[in-house]
Each structure stands twice: as C-alpha cells, then as structure tokens.
Amino acid sequence: MVDSVNQQRRSVIKGAISASTLALVAASGLLLPQRLLAHWPSDAFNAETVEDALLALVGQAEIADDTALRFKVGSPPSYAVNGASVPIEVQSDLANIERVAVLVAKNPSPLAMSIEPTAALKLPFKSMIKIAEDSDVIAVIRADGKLYKTTRFVEVDIGGCA
Amino acid sequence: MGVITKDRIRAKLKLGDTTVRVLLAHPMHTGRGENEDGDLIPAEFVQDFRCWRNEVEVLTIKCGTATAKNPYFSFQLVGGERGDRITIRWVDNLGAKGTAETTVK
User: What are the respective helix, strand and coil percentages of chain B, to the nearest 5?
Assistant: First the structure.
C-alpha cells in the first residue's frame, strides 16, 4: 500500500518536473525567436499586405490602441514631391518597446523597416523611406505584447520605388 | 548631387542623452528599377543594421527595400557620456558589409 502510494507520488512529481521544463523551453522559445533566428525575416519583408507583414513579423495584427504613438508633425509630410526619400519621425512615450515597424500600405512590399530596440534606446526615431504612390504610412509599436499604431496619408508626386 | 563615398556617423550628448545620427552610403536597389538600357537592376539593399555602445549592442534595424537610398537613421540612447564609443555595422543582401565608429561628443 505504502509502496504504491510512493510510486504514484513519484510519477506525479516526475510529470510535474517535465511539464515545467517543457513550459520553460516553450516560454524561452516564444520570448526569443528573433535573437535565436537573428536573420532577416524574409516572410515579413516579402509580404504583400500590411496584415501579412505584421503577422509574419510579430505574430499578431490586432491593434490595441492608436493614441500612444505619433508621427512628428510634418515628418512624414502629407505631401512629398519625391517619393524616393521621405523623412519619417516616430515618437512615443510607451515603455518596454519590443519592436517598431514602419510600413507603407501601397508599396509592393509594405514593410520598410523593423527596429529591434533594447532598453538603451529612446525615441524619437528618424529615418527616410521610399513611397511608391499616394499611400498610408503606418508606424507600429509592439510594447508589452500589444500593438500600437499611427497612420498618416502621404501624397507623392514622383513615386520612389524604382 | 554630391557623391557620398563612405558611411558617416555623429554622436552627440544632448540633455543627458546621446543622439546618434548615421548616414550610410548605399544605393539601395529594390530590384524593380531599370538602368538606361531598360534592364532591371538587381536588388541590392541593406538588410541588417546594428549599433553598439561600448561593446554593448543597443539596436538592430532590419531594412526592407523601402528604405531610402543612402539610408539615414537618427535615434537616441538613454544616458551616456562624452567619449563613449558608438559603433555601427551593416550587411546587405549580397553580403557586403560596412562599419563605422565614432566617439560621443
């Protein structure tokens, strides 16, 4: 009787241990895919829609909130003469930023760049992008597992995706 | 139009934070553009850009083809002091590499 109880207890403990190790492995795998894969995410960059690009990049496309980040006024401008070089500036007060992505909705491949910051990085982030035709420019921030987004419609005179 | 022949980097201490500005010298061909003869120019663009401060990695940027020619990045790093070494490295889709280094002023 005592033996069988011990046996049972053993298997329960064993099961608990393997379950917790599995959970650990899964958690670390989920938390660090970019570090482990440290390659260029071609799925995300070759995607043809904003949703596909976001799904491939961060695994989600549901936007939680659109007030927490913003473009600087005039950067990107609402009217750009040369689409080959349009300035953008992303600003946000969010903490724990895991990812910043800049997308141009109507470009052949929307994802323009994906920034993987560490705790040492502070926004604003400025850069230049190409815009093929009149299109929404979208900035997405992933912080604490949620996506935040801001959009600005940019008209371009000369498309710049050559 | 002036020809930029090498990567430029500036880092400056401003209100306690370090502002880093980087201008890479790269044609950033998307693979969709044509040359004068109407032939497609093969894709050639920076894919991976990394920045270190005193040997500590602080930032990775993955670029797509929609990043403009001669890519420009500007960002801030929390804290820092004069003399910090800021290093950047980039790799393009053909395997070409570039590096630049500066100290915070």
Answer: 0, 55, 45
Name which of A84, A114, A122 is nearest B76 (Cβ-Cβ): A122
Give pLDDT, residue A91.
85
Is B25 at the interface with chain A, CB within 8 A? Answer: no
Range of the domain at A117: 40-158
A16 and A45 part of one domain? no
Q: Are residues A130 and A96 in the same domain?
A: yes
Which residues does chain B have within 8 Å of residue A105's beta carbon, measured at their own beta carbons? none
Nearest beta carbon to residue A120 from set B53, B69, B72: B53
Q: Which two tokens stand for residue A87?
A: 């300035």
Domain count, chain A: 2
Amino acid, res. A61: A
- What are the residues whose beta carbons fall under 8 Å from the beta carbon of A38, sequence distance 6 or more? none
Interface confidence (ipTM) of the complex: 0.79
Interface test with A, best of B60, B73, B90 (most A CBs within 10 A): B60
pLDDT digits (tens, 9 = 90+) for A45-90: 777 777 778 887 777 767 766 677 777 776 777 788 888 888 888 8
Write the CA distances from A106 to A32, A91, A146, A154, integer angstroms: 31, 23, 24, 11
Q: Is A130 within 8 Å of B67 when comparing Cβ atoms?
A: yes
The Cα–Cα gap between A162 and B40 comes to 10
* Residues A97 and A143: beta-carbon distance below 8 Å: yes
